[in-house]
């Protein structure tokens, strides 16, 4: 068990007046805020859901690694998509990004995200005891 | 604590090219993907939210049982409904399905689900240490 | 580890025919249902997202305290907002309510909540091992 602490990644730090934390460690759990592709005021990946999703997964990986873990620790995603018509692009991004056992995944279409150019947001769950890359 | 592993139910297996897992065991936690009533290309329960909800809860029970647990282990539901007007049907399904202490439950109306005939999706949380059927 | 049990707060008890529990303790985790500002048939805070959010956070605090914990145990929020235009009001409420390390927070705009006067609903996560008020 790890003592509770906040994890910071300089490249994706919270804004100065942020009222949330991007990443916290709670025991064996790596707890994250919902992650979008927004960086420096624009959505990385532009109007492509697949590219935004890949940018998000990469950012999640950076946070999990900063916590001392790795992509193999991610065991669940809750994916909020603004247009369900692009669900195949989400599938393509998951197929490209993950190896080993896939995480669980919940996918719903919501009305909107915090900025209009954002097409997808992902809430990820990771745990130090999970290793999706090992044989099971 | 259980070693991390994937749980499979032949009757509700992931499609061959699925980029998610339906059920994973993480320590004492039984982790699930969001579950819908879709089976063989159609929504079990048709246009009835109550019947779709019951079909979903039954499928969740099958996954939890395949993990070695039972309905008594389910402690929380996050219910995504496409039309909040049918919330009483969700209540009716929960009343019919659960005994003992009810799970926690979060209910929101979302814009859509992965297929247009789906009216409800449930994200369920279960833990081997939970027994809602015992006296407390 | 705490034995599984239900937590009740008389001031915000479930309705007699409720098919959910407001709060359950699962090991070190304080599990909650989504909380709204609705009380006695109306939304506390009226048409103000900031006031509804503060009323919700206060109610969450009461539930966590009834479980034997405190505000310092809250480590994540999932915030469902009916109009993303009011996200700054959510920020203001978090700034006013929390001290120490901020919880993680996921914010999405959904189509609707269980009653039309509700503008925001929060799913909160708390754990007895978390102390956001201590130095880290």
Helix and strand element order of chain A: EEEEEHEHEE
Low-confidence stretches of chain A: none
Write out the strand line-up for the largest beta sheet of chain A, numbering strands in chain order: 1-2-3-8-6-7
Query: Which radius of gyration of chain A do the C-alpha atoms yield?
Result: 15 Å
State the helical fraction of chain A: 10-25%
Number of strands of chain A: 8
Average pLDDT, all residues of chain A: 96
- Structural shape of chain A: globular
Short synopsis of the structure:
The structure is a homotrimer of 136-residue chains. With 136 residues, the first copy, chain A, is α+β, with helices and mostly antiparallel strands. Chain A has helices spanning 49-66, 87-97; strands at 5-6, 23-26, 29-32, 38-39, 42-43, 74-81, 104-109, 120-127.
Describe this structure in words.
Chain A is of the alpha+beta class. Chain A contains two helices and eight strands; from the N terminus they run E-E-E-E-E-H-E-H-E-E. Chain A has helices at 49-66, 87-97, and strands at residues 5-6, 23-26, 29-32, 38-39, 42-43, 74-81, 104-109, 120-127. In chain A, strand 6, helix 2 (87-97) and strand 7 (104-109) form a beta-alpha-beta unit. In chain A, helix 1 crosses helix 2 (87-97). In chain A, 52% of the residues are buried. Chains in contact: A-B, A-C, B-C. The B-C interface holds B 28, 75-78, 84, 87, 91, 94-95, 98, 101-111, 125, 127, 129-132, 136 and C 1, 3-6, 17-24, 26-27, 31-34, 80, 110-114, 121, 123.
